[in-house]
Design a protein that fits this description.
Low-confidence stretches: 1-19
Largest sheet: 7 strands, mixed
Number of helices: 14
Bound molecules: pyridoxal-5'-phosphate
Helix content: 25-40%
Number of strands: 19
Strand content: 15-25%
C-alpha cells in the first residue's frame, strides 16, 4: 500500500497512516521484510517517518563522513545546480571537475597525476582494471591480463570488480560469469599471525604470497595486484601490519605489476589520512576512491592514475577506451569539492584521529573483557569489533545463528545504524560489526554509539541462546 507523505511548513515530515511507505514497485535489496522510511538527515542522525532518530554510526556503508545536512555542501549544491546541471564529457569539461581533480592530485601520494571521475566505487574499480589492461597494450606487453587480489576483500559488485573481490558468498552464484582471478591471503593479524611470529614476520610472510603467486601464474601474464589498504566491509576494519605494504610495493616493482589500492571505503579521511596508504609510506599506480568523496551528498567515485600510465595512453592510442554517461558530472564534482572544503577548513583529519582513539578506548572499555568479543581494531573512525564463541580458541559462532543480521536489527531498534557482516574469516564463518561514524562525532555521541551497540549485542546474544559467562 502506498501511503501519503504530508509535507507542511510546520511539520515537514509527517506521515499520514502507518509507519512505512511501502512501495509496490521498488526492486529493493531484499524482497523480505519492511524498512523504515528515511525522511530527514540532521547532523549525525537519520530520522524516519515516525520521527525516530538513528545515530548513523556507520555512515550507511562508510559514506556519510560529514553527517547529514551539512550547510556548506548544501549551499554548494544549490549554487552548482543554478549554474550548470550537466555537460557530457564527450563534448565539454567543467570547472568543478577540473578543480576537483587538481585538489585530489595536490594531496595524493607521489606519482599519481590524473583523475578519472565516475559515479561510485564499483565503477572506479572497473575503470582501474580496464586501464591496467589498456596500459599493457599501450606499452607492448599484451600477455599481461591477470589480476591478483586477496581473500576477504570487497571491490564492488560489477562483474570485473566482483571477480577481483575475494568474498566467497558474494561471488559464488556469479562464478560462471567472473574472469579468472586468483586470491592470496589477506594481511589479517588477529586471524593469521602465528604465535611464534612477530608482526613484521607475519606481514612479510603474507606479502610474499604475492611473489609466489606471480611466479606460479607467470609474471608475463600478471597486470595488477589490487588490495584495500584497510579492509572494510568483508573483514571489519583490518589494517595491515607494519612493513606489509612496503614489501608488496617491492614485489610489484620487481615483476612490473601495477599496484591498485582500493580506498573506496577506507579513503577520503576515514582513517585520519586523506589517502589511507599515507600511513604505510608507499604510493600506488592507481587508487580508487568513492563513498566519502561525495559523502552521500552525490554519487561520485574516482580513479587516480599515475603519470606513467597516463603518458603511456597519451603516447599511444590517445584515449582510454572506456566511459560512462555520467562521468565527471558537474554537480557530483561540486559536492566533492564542498566536502573537501569542509574536511580541510574544519581540520577534520586531525579530528578523525582524535575521535578515533576515543572510540577505540570506549569500545575497549565496554567490550575489552567481553567473553564473546575477540578483537577490537581499526584506524581513525573506521573500527571493527569481531565476535567469537570462544575468546581463547577464537572459534566463531555457528553461521546459521546469523548473529550479524540480528545485531543489525537490534541496533536499529536501539536507534543505531552500524554495519555488521558475517563471513569475516572465510566468507562463511565469523561475525563482525563495522563502525564508521561521521567525522563530526562528539564525545557524548561516542558514548551513545558504544552503549547502543552494547545493548544490541547483549539482546542478540541473549535471544540467540548464547550463554554469557560474565559481562
Ligand atoms: N571497493 C570497496 C573497498 C568497497 O567497500 C565498495 C563498497 O562497499 C566498493 C568498492 C564498491 O563501491 P560501490 O558500492 O560504490 O559501487
Amino acid at each position: 500500500m502506498l501511503l501519503a507523505l504530508c509535507v507542511t511548513p510546520n511539520n515537514p515530515f509527517t506521515l499520514s497512516g502507518t509507519e512505512n511507505i511501502m512501495s509496490n514497485h521498488i526492486f529493493g535489496r531484499t524482497t523480505r521484510g519492511t524498512m523504515p522510511t528515511a525522511v530527514k538527515g540532521e547532523g549525525c542522525y537519520l530520522i524516519d517517518a515516525n520521527g525516530k532518530r538513528y545515530f548513523d554510526g556507520s555512515g550507511g556503508a562508510a559514506v556519510s563522513c560529514l553527517g547529514h545536512s551539512d550547510p556548506h555542501v548544501r549551499q554548494a549544491l544549490h549554487q552548482q545546480i543554478d549554474q550548470l546541471d550537466f555537460a557530457h564529457t564527450g563534448f565539454f569539461t567543467s570547472e568543478p571537475a577540473e578543480r576537483l581533480a587538481d585538489r585530489l592530485i595536490e594531496k595524493a601520494p607521489a606519482g599519481l597525476d590524473r583523475v578519472y571521475l565516475v559515479s561510485g566505487g564499483s565503477e572506479a574499480v572497473e575503470a582501474a582494471i580496464k586501464l591496467a589492461r589498456q596500459y599493457f597494450l599501450e606499452v607492448g606487453e599484451p600477455t599481461r591480463h591477470r589480476v591478483i587480489a586477496r581473500r576477504q576483500s570487497y571491490h564492488g559488485n560489477t562483474l570485473g570488480a566482483l571477480a577481483a573481490g575475494g568474498n566467497e558468498w558474494r561471488r559464488a552464484q556469479f562464478a560462471p560469469l567472473l574472469v579468472d582471478t586468483t586470491h592470496i591471503a589477506p594481511c589479517f593479524e588477529y586471524r593469521g599471525r602465528q604465535a611464534n611470529e612477530s608482526q613484521f614476520e607475519y606481514g612479510q610472510r603474507v606479502a610474499n604470497e604475492l611473489e609466489t603467486e606471480i611466479l606460479r601464474v607467470g609474471p608475463e601474464t600478471v597486470m595488477a595486484f589490487i588490495a584495500e589498504p584497510v579492509v572494510g566491509a568483508t573483514a571489519g576494519a583490518v589494517p595491515a601490519v607494519p612493513g606489509y605494504y612496503k614489501r608488496i610495493r617491492e614485489i610489484c616493482d620487481q615483476y612490473g605489476v601495477l599496484l591498485i589500492l582500493d580506498e573506496v571505503m577506507c579513503g577520503m579521511g576515514r582513517t585520519g589520512h586523506l589517502f589511507s596508504i599515507e600511513a604505510e609510506g608507499i604510493s600506488a599506480d592507481m587508487i580508487t576512491i568513492a563513498k566519502g568523496l561525495g559523502a552521500g551528498y552525490q554519487p561520485i567515485g574516482a580513479l587516480l592514475a599515475s603519470k606513467k600510465i597516463y603518458d603511456a595512453v597519451a603516447a599511444g592510442s590517445g584515449f582510454f577506451q572506456h566511459g560512462h554517461t555520467y562521468l565527471g558530472h558537474p554537480i557530483a564534482a561540486a559536492a566533492a569539492n564542498a566536502v573537501l572544503d569542509v574536511i580541510f577548513e574544519q581540520n577534520l583529519l586531525d579530528r578523525v584521529t582524535e575521535q578515533g582513539h576515543k572510540l577505540q578506548a570506549a569500545l575497549e572499555q565496554t567490550f575489552g573483557d567481553h567473553p564473546h568479543i575477540g578483537d577490537i581494531r581499526g584506524r581513525g573512525l573506521f573500527r571493527g569489533v569481531e565476535l567469537v564463541a570462544d575468546r581463547g580458541t577464537k572459534e566463531p559462532f555457528d553461521p546459521s545463528l546469523k548473529l550479524h543480521a540480528k545485531i543489525k536489527a537490534n541496533a536499529m531498534n536501539e536507534g543505531l545504524i552500524c554495519y555488521p557482516m558475517g563471513g569475516t574469516i572465510d566468507g562463511q564463518r565469523g561475525d563482525h560489526v563495522l563502525l564508521a561514524p561521521p567525522f563530526i562525532i562528539s564525545d557524548n555521541q561516542i558514548d551513545e554509539v558504544v552503549s547502543k551497540l552494547d545493548r544490541a549485542i547483549e539482546t542478540t546474544l541473549a535471544t540467540s541462546g548464547v550463554h554469557l559467562s560474565t559481562h
